UniProtKB/TrEMBL annotation:
The protein's name: Phage integrase, N-terminal SAM-like domain
GO biological process assignments: DNA integration
Signal peptide: none
One term of GO molecular function: DNA binding
Length: 148
């Protein structure tokens, strides 16, 4: 049984034990949804909670392997990019995401996106449009993934 400790503050995540004995570590994601992982031992759940909190502090979503590139791009453009961009730039980003990025890499899981997928997307966009359009699509994707 875990030792009694102070109550966690809001936003620090939580630990609880299910009826089947599994310990659940839970954190609140920036989009308002909860993400949780289960462990058999209390100490493992505490370590998992610490790892999830560290990832969130570094800007890494713990469920990155489960969400698609399209879901991440929608979240990124609405919550992260929108407050920092001028309206015309934001409209250009939304258009690029809708017409170039989502059709080519939108269905891919975020954790499984590879440089080959990005190169293939750039080549397809360059074939269908201009090379500047392909360059802009790459730039928006790189910004959304935190590579720039």
């Amino acid at each position: 049984m875990p030792p009694k400790k102070r109550r966690r503050a809001k936003g620090e995540g939580g630990l609880y034990q299910r009826a089947d004995g599994m310990w659940m570590a839970q954190v609140l994601l920036p989009d308002g949804k909860y993400y949780q992982r289960g462990r058999k031992k209390y100490a493992d759940a505490v370590a998992e909670l610490a790892a999830m909190r560290k990832d969130l502090a570094n800007g890494i979503l713990p469920n990155a392997g489960q969400i698609t590139v399209a879901q991440w791009l929608d979240y990124w453009v609405d919550t992260i990019a929108a407050p920092r961009l001028k309206p015309r730039t934001l409209a250009t980003y939304r258009s690029t995401i809708k017409h170039q990025l989502i059709p080519h890499v939108g269905s891919k899981k975020l954790g499984k996106l590879t440089p080959t997928d990005v190169r293939r997307m750039v080549n397809h966009v360059a074939d269908a449009h201009t090379t500047r359009t392909a360059q802009a699509a790459y730039s928006v994707l790189a910004k959304a993934l935190g590579m720039q």
